[in-house]
Amino acid sequence: MKKILLVDDDKNLSRSLANLFDAQDFNFDFLEDGSEVKKIIAGNSKYDLVMLDVNLPTMSGLEVLKEIKKVNKTIPVIVISGFVSTENAIQAIREGAFEYLTKPFELKKLVATVNRACGLTAQPTEAPSVSHANQISSGEVGVMIGKAPEIVEIAKMVGQLSKSNAPVLIVGEQGTGKELVAKAIHRNSLLSSNQFLSINCASMPESLLESELFGHEKGAFTGAYYKRIGKIEQANQGTLFLADIGKASMLTQSKLLRVLQEGKFERVGGEESIDVDTRLIVSSSGSLVEAMKEGSFRVDLFYKLKVASIYIPPLRDRRNDIPLLVDYFLGKYSGNNSDNPKRISKEAMQYLSGYDWPGNVRELENNVQSAVMMGRSDILSLDDFPAYTERNSTNGKKNSEIKSDYTDSFKNIIEPVMPKLILNSPGQIYQFLESAFERAIISSCLKLFNGNQVKTSESLGISRNTLRDRISRYDLY
Known about the structure:
CATH superfamily of the largest domain: P-loop containing nucleotide triphosphate hydrolases
CATH class of the largest domain: Alpha Beta
């Protein structure tokens, strides 16, 4: 039998959680405060797991976690929280938590996590629902503002990666916040007291990029009137973030590989090997796999970086986070009126939440900043946001043409089968047609691109993860 110590000041929730598990396999002890946990753990080695709420009366769950790990580093601890906090997730994993879960729980995931922590492989069973308020900390900056499960997972990965100085690859579309994640890894790491520097590999010519990275000796080339210390050397004992690594030349890639493997490099025009201990975090908005196939990216460098990788989803795949981001940016750009920031109309918020944001969070931020500066009312309307005004002024005719071109075609396909659908599938017609239409679109696009998922996802305007999910769902392999 597995012994579990559950620390939460919500008695009803604690009992509900305990009822999810077979009493013959699990025995729960309960505490409502964390002040006694350290003493109990130190004097009692019988517990197989501690489940710990973040918000406790006298001390936070994260403080209790630290105390537990001081007396028993091996006991697994699952941290649970009533609100989504990327900073809490980072800190919990960094301090050695087995897992960080938020309420309301996905019950199967909760039971499976407990089983894993206790070294069991039992399958989760159907269980009664657990009710708990889900509060969102909308004002925190953290890794990324949001409550989407993907964002919480990114925060936990940041906490895990902060424990080492291993290189990290961050992948995501332009504007998703890749540098923000890189800074969070550095800020929570042992290197946080040293420099964090960044270079965009796509923003400068190759000759200049090489000098910026590795430095050069005096006289190395025309115009090299003095010795220059490169960013890799400047960031020694710290972190260097390289954006758009796929734009670097093969020569620069080979030098970066040597830095990763040997911790050595030479300045441009120099012969002396310089030792360096710089953590490299790199990002890419394009597919490095496709770049390898094309021969423009080194395979060995890719797999050296791929050991630790983070994927940031586009904003259109986490629309529920848009209101949180809008509220944060409204406060950020209200300036002297931060105590009474501008508000946004319901109509405008609905439009922003439904917009696809091809420029992701960066585009949304620019739109809110523009609306705050240019809006004349305390309540911002649709007309204050460039995403609405520009799209409607330039694409109005185009949208009407698309409607007239395709609506009639779809009607000609659907109308003949509609009576049969009404007869055989009442109440399910919309769902049936929606899935059939989605399958047809993805299947046709995959066929057009000969199964190339990168080109298919880019053309459809969906993420690779979404495409892979639909391919699996509709058996389109």
